[in-house]
């Protein structure tokens, strides 16, 4: 069955290929990419490849990055979700991480916080994932605020592409 989560204001649902334009907008928006170091500016075709990988994750891991839809307007707000990482970051590999991107039109309305709480609840309680990480650029104040509001604990700091990042974790109770 397709993954779908719901909160007061939003639906989190699986991405589909027809979401490519909206997905690509986030992949190429300067403000959205500001703190994502070493992130290449993608062509539409490259975004399509990434979107296909996102979609593939759902079947393999029952989780992944989900599209956030505004219940009131059906507008595309952005994405949020827990993804399984099999590549190395810092000294870790094969871990779950929470990630999110919100379209700037929707910033500062609590959407990332609301979506993160729903995704963590799904991952930790429904899927019984024992541990979820989050990696944040130390300059990314907005993201640090979200992390502090949804229950993560600071683990350590490290350098990635010459940029200081914080590593956070939340553990299943
Ligand atoms: C980080 C991001 C997802 C936050 O989304 P959002 O929906 O605006 O987040 P929320 O509204 O839930 O919370 C943002 C918090 O930052 C605050 N904030 C907004 N603009 C800010 C700014 N310029 N400086 C500092 N804080 C700011 C908000 O007031 C809110 O804090 P509060 O709840 O204490 O008032 C969004 O800015 C984004 O997509 N950024 C680009 C992608 C990105 O950096 N992703 C995270 C990678 S780790």
Give short descriptive properties of this protein.
single chain; 173 residues; alpha+beta; Aminopeptidase; 8-stranded mixed beta sheet; 32% strand; binds coenzyme A
What does the model show?
- The structure is a single chain.
- This protein has 173 residues and is α+β, with helices and mostly antiparallel strands.
- The protein has a single domain, classed as 3-Layer(aba) Sandwich (Aminopeptidase).
- The chain contains 5 helices and 8 strands.
- It has helices at 20-28, 30-33, 44-61, 111-126, 141-149; strands spanning 4-6, 10-14, 65-70, 76-85, 95-102, 131-137, 153-160, 163-171.
- Strands 1-2-3-4-5-6-8-7 form an 8-stranded mixed beta sheet, with helices on both faces.
- α1 (20-28) crosses α3 (44-61).
- The longest helix has 18 residues, at 44-61.
- The two termini are 26 Å apart.
- 28% of the residues are buried.
- Bound molecules: coenzyme A.
- The site of coenzyme A (COA) has 19 residues, from β5, α4 and α5.
- Coenzyme A binds next to β5, α4 and α5.
